[in-house]
Specification:
The chain has four helices and five strands; from the N terminus they run βαβαβαβαβ. With 122 residues, it is α/β, with parallel strands linked by helices. It has one domain: 3-Layer(aba) Sandwich (Hypothetical Protein Ychn, Chain: A), CATH 3.40.1260. Strands 4-3-2-1-5 form a five-stranded parallel sheet. Strand 3, helix 3 and strand 4 form a beta-alpha-beta unit.
């Protein structure tokens, strides 16, 4: 368990690297299952995963489907934050966010990490 009781996974990939996108949510699920206050921060191309249905066709061999990993993460109490400028740059639909996703600015991530919270990046 981290000293802060919190854990962050930063993900900047989606369909452009489905292996990294999948593993990021595998790790996030492990963290939330370990009683960590767990955040997945989606940035760059990763913000596309915040759109309902985008993750549906992504299924890496040997892993659960990405949409299932994401849904299970949120159901277990995990939080998904979506980089606001990245989201807007890609002209995505704020009305089509997946369950548990919130669009935030970078200051929110900095605040979450400011106490030394560990963060893995994919």
């Amino acid at each position: 368990m981290s000293a802060t009781g919190k854990f962050c996974v930063s993900l900047s990939y989606a369909s452009d690297n489905t292996d990294k996108a999948t593993v990021a949510f595998v790790i996030a699920n492990a963290a939330v299952a370990s009683a960590q206050d767990t955040l997945v921060f989606l940035s760059v191309e990763g913000v596309k995963l915040a759109q309902r249905g985008f993750a549906d066709p992504i299924h890496e061999e040997g892993f659960a489907p990405l949409a299932d990993l994401m849904a299970n993460f949120v159901k277990a109490g995990g939080t998904i934050w979506v980089c606001s400028p990245c989201f807007k740059k890609r002209k995505l639909d704020e009305q089509a966010l997946v369950a548990g996703a919130t669009i935030v600015g970078g200051a929110k991530l900095v605040e979450f990490l400011s106490d030394g919270t560990p963060c893995l990046s994919y």
